[in-house]
Amino acid sequence: MSYGLRVTGGNSILQIDSDTEQLEGSAIISNGFGSSITGVNSSDVILVTLDFPAVPNGSYKAVGVRKSGNTWEFLNENGAAVGVKYIRLAKTTAFTRTESYGLQVKNSSGVLVFDSRAFAETSAPGFTFNTYYPPGAFSGAFDPVASLNTYVSINHGYYSDATDYFSGLVFANNDPEAGTGVKFLSRTIVFGGSFIFLPNMGDILEGSTW
Amino acid sequence: MATNVWTPNFTIGSFVFGETFYGYNADNGQGSLSDYTANMYGGAFCEVIQWAGGSFDKLQIRFRGDVRSQSLAWDYVQIGSSRKFYYTDASIGYDNVENHTLFQWAQSTNPYGTSGTVTVRFRKVDRYFYMRLGQPTSESNHTALNGANVDRYDVSGIYPAYYITTEEGDLTVTPTLFRYNPDQEQMRSETVWVAMTSSSSTRFDPARPATKITFSESSNLSQGVAGSAFTVKGNQINDDRYMGVYTDGGTGPGSLISGRNWNPGFPGSSAASNTSYTSGVLARIRLWRISAPTIGSVSTPTVYDNNVTVTINLSSNGIGVTNYTGGTILSDLEYGQNDTNTPPALSTGGSVWFSSPSFFSTTRGTTSYFFARQKFNGQEEVSAGFQYTVPYLQPETSITATYQSQSSTTHVVEITNNSDENTTYIIRINGSGNYGQRTGNGVITVSDLPPATQTRTYEVWALLLTDRGGAGTLVDTGVTYQVTSSAQLIGPDPFDFQDVYNAATSTTYTSSVVLSGIDDAALTANVASSSNGTGQISDDNVNFGSTVGNLVNGDTLYVRATSASTSSTTVSTNVEVNGVTDSFLITTSSGGGGGGLPGGTSDYALKLTNSGNSTVFSPDYRYTNIMAQGTYSLAAGATSSSITAPGVGDPTKAAVLLLTSGSYTISVNKSANSFTLTNNDDSAASGNYIAVRFG
Fold first, then answer.
1. Cβ contact (<8 Å) for A130 and B596?
2. How far is it, in rounded angstroms, from Cα B654 to Cα B665?
3. Which of A153, B244, B550, B585 is the most buried (most CB within 10 A)?
4. Number of alpha carbons in the 13 Å side-chain half-sphere of residue A179
5. Distance between CA B240 and CA B256 in Å, rounded?
6. Among B496, B631, B653, beta carbon nearest to A180
7. What pLDDT is recorded for position A69?
8. More confident residue, B131 or A6
9. DSSP 3-state assignment of A118?
10. How confident is the model over B29-42, as pLDDT tens digits?
11. For B381-404, how does the pLDDT look when each residue is reduced to its tens digit (9 = 90+)?
């Protein structure tokens, strides 16, 4: 690199590289609790979670997604709305910035790839991924992903009443079928009413705020 | 009892002078006893013939009758060696009469009298005696008893007499003679001299000096009170004489104390002219010095009040004054109290000194000094101060506490067997707190209950309030009882240890949860099972074992286990807390499995903070970059063109998220810096993808 800014953290983790045009930084643009999110861009990473109080003992809650434009609805396997704790991770360029201080980094194309002011948008400044699950890591039948109250990506989420296809996450609390924790569930109904479970096609990420 | 007490006159007998009386040689005049007896003309005998033990200090024989003769000088009555001249009536006294003392009289020739009566009386007679009266049978046998009357006169105990007496003449002596010496505690004596001087030529009988001293305060005679006046009585003073009382001059009278003249008148004997005679008289003055009493103890009654009366108990009354009957005079014993070890002002009565028995009102816990004193005739002797603090009453601790019942938050205990209804009982735990109380016997509702299924020991403390005479401090009765809660354990809420996937082999991983939903009872966690035996738990992340106790809300419970030595193997550690379980899973990585991303740790590189000084960018964090996003639309079995995403081939650095939009199967084919998508379904598929970089 003959110019620009490249920042690596511990363990040589790449954090900022203005010389790589494909890298555009991200931050938490919104978070909260609800059964839907609006203004979702196609480049946003959505992560959800639930904790014990939201999941009664001996039960589970399934969370799938029905996407309508920029609105995402969180539905269970029966199509009912489900409130979840969510995080919306968006590109730095999506943020509205007013402060006159901080650090901005642009790449060679003039695209803003880092803006420290973005971290003040929400109560949780940043988000980091802790664990990854590559495609095919899960069978789709309540595969354990993480502990409850852990944010797991749900970009793969899907709900279709018409096709009886559900893909998402299950938050279970001593449930006889799902057990306890965050599970991966992806299934569809075939003739005879039986389920066919489907593996994860893309990566599943689990992380936490800082 | 009066001191000068004589017995009544006992008539010994009477007689008639007759021819049997022998004549007397008048020319012989006065002479020796033998001479008298040898020449007496008539007479009678009165003889004390027996004493039955005891004695008297004076015998008086009195003759009454007409025995006048021609010559006064030669008519007489004689008892023993004591003679008295007389006319018609005479009496003489005689001390220390012994058995067979002869009573006789002599009479001159041609007596006038024809008859007479002999009487006797005694002092200090404590036994009986016999006397008889007789007449001489011949001139030479005048001692023989003839026709004697023998009578017994028993005066035992009837007429006690203590001191000598005289019959006439009083002389008051200056009281300063007897000096009081307070340093002397024993009886002391003073000697005075009584001198009688004849101022005329009348006769004076030296054998009968003044022999009696009578104190004017007769009741205090034996006490010899200092300064008391006393009286000297002369005996047989029958002429114009002067009698004085003199100080002890050693061998004779010293200085004149007091004196007087008197003339008892006719008849009487007379001494030679200007004859003086002195007689030593021992006046035994008993002077007792009083001494202070000794306080042996001070006591208080058991009264349930802060203010109580105290009683002073003497261990010794001190030495008082013994009266003549042997008793002790302590009429002036008094008691005092003071805040300091100084007796109240002496000679002050009223509210300061109280007569016996004495009571003082004192506040418990207050130290006072108590005194006792004895007063007598101006002398005061006070005891040493007796320090005494009225003790507090102690609460009754001999009780029984019996558990009765319990509710959800309280229990009931009954207090029995205490002997008083003044003690307050308080229920405590480990010597502190007040969970319920009552006074006296009865039940107490205790505002405490041990946690579910647990047993707690309660202590009964006792308290006697100050207004009931106590110190107002809590006292452990030593009585305890136990209560076991019948409530069930509640909690915890379900918990979930964060499992580890894509773990390294043979590596120890730790996870933790914060426990919630636990009721007031502490719970215990156990390792219910461990698939490879390495599972352990801890509440401090330091000390691990199979059990952790005393877990309450908010406690963090840690679990750790060692991953398997082979890939794609799960190690399970099942942790149980009051029936709630969770398995901590550690799954080693495989080719298709997920994996944990190592965090960054460095003290260099870029660190940013926001205006609130919160770190927003740090080398410790993974920062997420969006590398690529887009849509795909693939026919059945089609593969997309390559999509650039630097590092996507390394799952620890990048990932591809597919946004599902239908029921189909898409596979992601990653290479070093790009990926492709393949539709594995038998129909077309479309959707979105996002490639993120986090490492």
1. yes
2. 21
3. A153
4. 21
5. 19
6. B496
7. 87
8. A6
9. helix
10. 332 233 333 333 33
11. 889 999 999 889 999 999 999 999
Residues with Cβ within 8 Å of B370's Cβ and at least 6 positions away in sequence, in order, are B295, B298, B310, B312, B335, B336, B337, B360, B385, B386, B388
Residues 6+ apart with CB under 8 A from B78: B33, B36, B84, B103, B104, B105, B106
Q: Which of B493, B599, B658 sits opposite A52 (nearest CB)?
A: B493
Structure token digits, residue B107: 């009479």
Distance in Å, alpha carbon of B449 to nearest chain A alpha carbon: 28
Angstroms from A73 CA to nearest CA on chain B: 13
Dihedral sign computed on CA atoms, order B74, B76, B80, B81: negative
CA distances B591 to A154, B108, B500, B507, Å, are: 23, 179, 16, 18
The Cα-based distances of B1 to A50, B166, B211 in angstroms read: 119, 18, 21
- The helix/strand/coil state of B37 is helix
Residue pair B527/B575 in contact (Cβ under 8 Å)? The answer is yes
CB contact under 8 A, B599 and A129: no
Phi, psi for A46 (deg, rounded to 5):
-110, 130
Q: Between B513, B582, B600, which is nearest A11 by CB? A: B600
Strand spans (E) along B563-635: 570-577, 580-588, 595-596, 608-609, 615-617, 625-634
Each residue of B344-381: pLDDT tens digit?
Answer: 876 655 557 777 655 678 889 889 999 988 776 556 78
Q: Alpha carbon of B299 to those of A3, A182, B116, B307, B335: distances in Å? A: 106, 83, 74, 13, 14
Q: Which two tokens stand for residue B109?
A: 């020739």
Report phi then psi at B445, rounded to 5: -90, 115
Per-residue pLDDT of A37-51, as tens digits, reads: 999 998 999 999 987
Q: What is the C-alpha to C-alpha distance for residues B517 and B346, in angstroms, rounded to an integer?
A: 80
User: Is residue B243 over pLDDT 60?
Assistant: no
Q: Which residue has the tokens 């305890």?
A: B480
- Please name the member of A144, A148, A149 whose beta carbon is closest to the beta carbon of B585: A144
Q: Is the pLDDT of residue B92 over 60?
A: no
Determine the 3-state secondary structure of A117 from DSSP.
helix
Q: Which residue of B has its CA nearest to A128?
A: B622
Q: Given the DSSP bridges, would you call strands B424-428 and B437-439 parallel, antiparallel or unpaired? A: antiparallel
Q: Which two tokens stand for residue B48?
A: 């004390």
Q: What is the DSSP letter of B453?
A: T
- CA A2 to chain B, closest CA, distance in angstroms equals 19
Distance from CA of B550 to the nearest CA of A (A): 22
The reported pLDDT for the residue numbered B557 is 94
Distance between CA atoms of B506 and B500, rounded to whole angstroms?
Answer: 13
Q: How far apart are CA B652 and CA B695, in angstroms?
A: 6
Q: Is B445 exposed, middle or buried (0-12, 13-18, 19+ CB in 10 A)?
A: middle
Name the 3-class secondary structure at B33.
helix
- Binary contact (B626, A188; C-beta < 8 A): no
CA dihedral B237, B241, B246, B251 (to 10 degrees): -80
How far is B130 from B267, CA to CA, in rounded Å? 31
**Residues shown for chain A:** 210
Task: Calculate ∠ Cα B111-B113-B116, nearest 5°.
Answer: 130
- The residues, any chain, with a CB within 8 Å of residue A66's CB and separated by 6 or more, are A72, A73, A75, A158, A159, A160
Identity of residue B264: P
Residue in this structure with the two tokens 């410790």, named with its chain if needed: B620
In 3D space, the residue among A208, A202, A200 whose CA is nearest the CA of residue A152 turns out to be A208
The Cα–Cα gap between A123 and A32 comes to 10
**Interface size, chain A vs chain B, as Cβ–Cβ contacts under 8 Å:** 246
